[in-house]
Amino acid sequence: MNWKFCLAILTCNVVFMSSSYTMLIPFLPMYLTRELGVDAASVNIWSGVVFSSTFLISAIMAPIWGRMADRRGKRLMAIRASLLLSISYFLGGIVTSPLQLTFMRMFQGFASGLWPMELAIMTIYAPPKKLGICLGIMQGALTAGGIIGPLFGGILAEAFGMRMSFFLAAGALFLNFVVLVFFIKEPPTDTAAADTAAAGAEGEKVSLWKIPVIRLMLVSAALVQVVILIVQPILTTYISHLAGELDNLVFISGLIFSMSGFSSAITAPLWGRFGQHHGFVKALRLSLVLAGIFFFIQAIPDTLYTFAASQFAIGLFFSGIYPSINAILAEKTSANIKGRVFGLMFSAQQVGAMGGPILGGVIATFLGMKCVFLAAGALLLVISIAVQRKARQLHEA
Q: How confident is residue 15, by pLDDT bands cut at 50, 70 and 90?
């Protein structure tokens, strides 16, 4: 199968997947109150339960789906995820109680795994010299979908009601299902006896967690996800604090919130190209250090405009982290264990997503909101030091 055609198809799929998710998630508290009758006193509790239930189930299921992908086909697992996610969004549009919505989100966690499978497929089809660019484009598509989703979600909610967003998301995921069935072929498996990390039958016996390169990348992915979720919950509150009394505060908050998304969508492919030419380990270290520095800088501004500029700058550098991690994992593993590897990475991210909001809430409550940005920057610099210490091992693995 032509890798350019595969990249085009999977990039469109990623945009649909990401925009479907972000079309709904920011508006879940409103959905609980407006459509499901949850009172103001209980909405925060229900929001937390509904939001986190998916992470818990998907963290458990991701390695299982990854192992099945290596045994039965990565395309098959991508098809499975698309269809079941489509069903989950449809169910979200017809639920009548917060408990039913929680069960829907749990089913969504069970169904998840589309993103790691599409990554695995692309890393097999991409020529070695184009791997970084391909992964950068897909990461940019993921970020772009995250920008498009809330815009469409808000417009649909105002025009047709919030349930319509669920049905539209279901339709987008079903379209992904159809495209995967008819246009994507199962990628070839690696039949070599061994590779630098694990291969063939040996890859089934050896625990991937015991391989130093994979372990470091999984831990890094989890901690980077902690950084994302440590900051996101307090961003709009902090922006409101800086803005003071503004008539269009919601619009301004949303715009500044998405600044890093705009810059990330632009620069993710560029980071992929940089990693392709200068090494993905170097790209990872550089993006971690620069993003960490700008998180420190973000704690300084006391004006809305300077904070917005720092938010945009963070996106420029943060966008290089995940494409570099994905590329390192792709380079160091054979095709017949990529499903397990990217499944484990997705699981690690879900674990980080569960821990991030809790840690951020504790820091903001006891130390102040500025300390959340300092903690995020410090965590990225710690990861960069760990990568630096293992740089030779990463190059030789």
A: very high
